TrEMBL record:
PROSITE patterns: AA_TRANSFER_CLASS_1. It comes from Cephalotus follicularis. Signal peptide: none annotated. In eukaryotes there are cytoplasmic, mitochondrial and chloroplastic isozymes. Its EC number is 2.6.1.1. It catalyses: L-aspartate + 2-oxoglutarate = oxaloacetate + L-glutamate. Keywords: Aminotransferase, Pyridoxal phosphate, Transferase. Belongs to the class-I pyridoxal-phosphate-dependent aminotransferase family. The keyword DNA-binding does not apply. The lineage of its organism: Eukaryota, Viridiplantae, Streptophyta, Embryophyta, Tracheophyta. GO terms for molecular function: L-aspartate:2-oxoglutarate aminotransferase activity; pyridoxal phosphate binding. GO terms for cellular component: mitochondrion. SUPFAM superfamilies: PLP-dependent transferases. NCBIfam families: PRK09257.1 (NF006719). This is Aspartate aminotransferase.
């Protein structure tokens, strides 16, 4: 007995000391450029601090919002999900309502059952599922991203082992769309393209309807596959249908893919509720594709959570709640547009020689300010204002209370070299 214990203990000790080596080669992962901004903001004790990093809606007090339509849906469904033994019925209803938002409720593709849709873990999860699907059925393909794009797109397709390329999108001089360069990009026929249908992240620059038509035409001629990442429907123009105008691709007979997120436009970030849909040639193909998407999801995370999907489908399938949501989306978009106007007006009032027109020309949550990495660093260290180093500002973080402080601070860091022309002024904070 004594001998047995000693041997066991010696064995345990040597195993435990060897086990330390299992993870010795693992270093710290690179910081996420977006999450890093919030971390820096949180440890700053200044009362003036402003977080322009977070890509979620905030009210004019800088606070997260629970929409009234969500509160009403919560009240209606209270307890009901516990009656469901499986979530597939909830998921199907959710998918049906979600795709109507993108394709239009009377669209043929909806009525003919030509789309295959699956509930996903918010927009990120929908992109990840599609990337995996792409790898499985087009293992030699690439993905073309606009330059620049949401930083996580690179991670998502990289982890699915799909190589990436970029296509021209943003013009740093005009701070608008580089349409001519975009149209003359040369990807091999039959390539996969990721497009932001509205409120492009990070630039806030969207093609016009006419430009979308031309892009669609070119894609058709080159047989490209358009994958739309719809993370901000409603938050660009305030109107859900206008923000889905890129879907005119359907008129040219494209088969498309679409990732939808309800994180921002319904304020359901924490519920991770999204939808991936793939438009197919016919209902039979849609059944096959859906089964493949479910197969991929099953191995990745089983199934999606039920509560957020139940909230969304309750809102979208009830006329009054949907009308309330439409109104609330408009209110969110209008507040952001108003803050764009105020920030530009404040900067112009300060006599800035920088052209700030793009603040109001760009749309959606983000303004691609044109501030350099050094200027962004100065805003953080001297003025307690945080944004990503590419100069992307989340306009949701701008409020009536902080807009003049923000304008004064931006003016301070951009005024260098202009002082001979313009005496330094300040406006009331
Ligand atoms: C373009 C784009 N796609 C997808 C997402 C992911 O959204 P979600 O929070 O729903 O995963 C974001 C969020 O920042 C985004 O900007």
């Amino acid at each position: 007995m004594w001998r047995y214990t000693m041997i066991t203990r010696r064995c345990f000790m040597s195993t435990s000391s060897r086990a330390v080596g299992w993870w010795d080669h693992v270093g710290v992962a690179p910081k996420d450029p977006i999450n890093g901004v919030t971390e820096a903001f949180l440890v700053d004790c200044s009362p003036n601090k402003i977080n322009l990093g977070v890509g979620a809606y905030r009210d004019d007090e800088g606070k997260p919002v629970v929409l009234q339509c969500v509160r009403e849906a919560e009240a209606k469904i209270a307890g009901s999900e516990f009656l469901e033994s499986i979530s597939s019925a909830v998921s199907s209803k959710f998918v049906e309502e979600s795709v109507k938002l993108v394709y239009g409720k009377d669209s043929d593709v909806v009525n003919e059952g030509r789309f295959s849709g699956i509930q996903a873990l918010s927009g990120t999860g929908a992109c990840r599922l599609f990337a995996e699907f792409q790898r499985r059925f087009y293992p030699k393909s690439r993905i073309y991203f606009p330059h620049p794009t949401w930083s996580n797109h690179h991670n998502i397709w990289r982890d699915a082992q799909i190589p990436e390329s970029t296509f021209h999108y943003y013009h740093p001089n005009s701070k608008g769309l580089n349409f001519a360069a975009l149209m003359s990009d040369n990807a091999p026929d039959g390539s996969f393209f990721l497009l932001h249908p509205c409120a492009h992240n990070p630039t806030g620059v969207d093609p016009t309807e006419e430009q979308w038509r031309e892009i669609s035409c070119q894609f058709k001629a080159k047989n490209h596959f358009p994958f739309f990442d719809m993370a901000y429907q409603g938050l660009a123009s305030g109107d859900l249908d206008s923000d889905a105008q890129a879907i005119i691709f359907l008129e040219d007979g494209h088969l498309i893919g679409c990732a939808q997120s309800f994180a921002k436009n319904m304020g359901l970030y924490g519920h991770r509720v999204g939808c991936l849909s793939v438009l197919c040639n016919d209902a039979k193909q849609a059944v096959a594709i859906k089964s493949q998407l479910q197969h991929i999801a099953r191995a990745m995370y089983g199934g999606p959570p039920i509560h957020g999907a139940l909230l969304v489908s309750t809102i979208l399938s009830d006329l009054d709640k949907k009308a309330l949501w439409v109104k609330e989306v408009k209110t969110m978009a209008s507040r952001i547009q108003k803050m764009r106007g105020s920030l530009r007006a404040c900067l112009e009032e300060l006599g800035s020689f920088v052209n700030w027109e793009h603040i109001t020309n760009q749309v959606g949550l983000f303004c691609f300010s044109g501030l350099t990495a050094d200027q962004v660093d100065r805003l953080a260290t001297e003025f307690h204002i945080y944004m990503t180093r590419d100069g992307r500002m989340s306009m949701a973080g701008v409020t009536t209370g902080n807009v003049s402080y923000l304008a004064n601070s931006i003016h301070e860091v951009t005024v260098f070299g202009q002082e001979a022309k313009s005496p330094r002024r300040r406006i009331g904070i």
